[in-house]
Amino acid sequence: MTPQPHQDRMLIKLSGEALSDGNNKYSETVLADIASKIKVLLEEGKQICLVVGGGNLFRGAELSGNLDIKRPTADYIGMIATVQNALVVRDYFHGQGVDARVLSAISMNQVCEPYVPGRAIRHMEKGRVVIFAGGLGNPFFTTDSASAQRALEMNCSLLVMAKNGVDGVYTKDPRTNDDAEKITRINGSDVLEQNLKVVDGSAISVARDNHLPIHIISMKELEKVGDYSVGTMVEPR
Questions:
Q1: Partner of 124 for a Cys bridge, out of 47, 63, 106, 112, CB 3.0 to 4.6 A?
Q2: Beta bridge mates, 184
Q3: Which residues, 6+ apart, have CB-to-CB distance to 193 below 8 Å?
Q4: Contacts with 60 (C-beta within 8 Å, 6 or more apart), sequence order
Q5: Contacts of 64 (CB under 8 A, 6+ apart)
Q6: Three-state secondary structure call for residue 36
Q7: CB of 48 within 8 A of CB of 90?
Q8: CA distances (Å), 184 to each of 156, 162, 211, 222, 232, in order?
Q9: What pLDDT is attached to residue 60?
Q10: Which stretches does DSSP call E strand in the chain?
Q11: pTM of the model
Q12: Which residues form the domain of 171?
């Protein structure tokens, strides 16, 4: 029998760019704010795991497009960037008095734990934040895809995509189109059919096919996770 999702367990995807202030690779203010908001969720009884991107440090697709290296090599370098970000985020949790562990799909035993699903679940059951790094450990997959996969493996009831500079799904890019309209609720099939690119299409497909809802919100409203009047709710249909 397939286990029911854990109603108080969620995975939050943080983009690498969200850790930056635009001028520096990391923002002290942003990192402290992320840690404090997630601490509030923990105090409300939530079990939290995270996937952190690496875009503030490195993008594999950009490197393979400009240098004579293969795409898999570039993607592995990008995975290493996510480990760097995960370690930074972990220490900011520790600074807030929150116990956090980094589990990597790429073996780096001197700096973090290997990804073992059962171990990750036990950490969350003990009140620790689990930060997944290294993507899925394979090239050609985005951290959005890793987020959907890990959320399902962790039996989460919700996948949260915390966006930098965007507070939901729009009919057009709101940063370049004044007539863009915000969509508060949509199903996964319509996201794919309308080619709305706020989340990687493969992540939407995996979530839809496995009945995993996605809440897309702004990083600035992270503490409002679960309030579906905020952001956009992507229903798994």
A1: 47
A2: none
A3: none
A4: 71, 74, 75, 76, 77, 78, 139
A5: 70, 71, 73, 74
A6: helix
A7: no
A8: 22, 15, 19, 16, 4
A9: 58
A10: 6-14, 47-52, 100-104, 113-114, 129-133, 156-163, 169-170, 182-183, 185-187, 214-218, 232-235
A11: 0.92
A12: 6-235
DSSP 181: -
| pLDDT at res. 31 | 93
Q: Which CATH number is 192's domain given?
A: 3.40.1160.10
Is the CB of residue 230 less than 8 Å from the CB of residue 221? Answer: yes
Q: What pLDDT does 171 receive?
A: 87
pLDDT in the model for residue 1:
55
Tell me the three-class secondary structure of 104-134, residue by residue. Answer: ECCCCCCCCEECCHHHHHHHHHCCCEEEEEC
Both tokens of 82, joined, read: 């996510």
Q: Has residue 192 been placed in a domain? A: yes
Backbone angles phi, psi at 47, to 5 degrees: -105, 125
The residue to which tokens 């997944």 are assigned = 132
Number of domains in the chain: 1
Q: So what's the pLDDT on residue 39?
A: 95
Q: Per the structure block, which two tokens stand in for 124?
A: 């969350």
Flag whether 1 is in a domain.
no
Name 197's Cβ contacts closer than 8 Å, sequence gap at least 6: none
Q: Is residue 128 situated within a structural domain?
A: yes
Residues in the chain, pLDDT under 50: none
Is position 29 within any domain?
yes
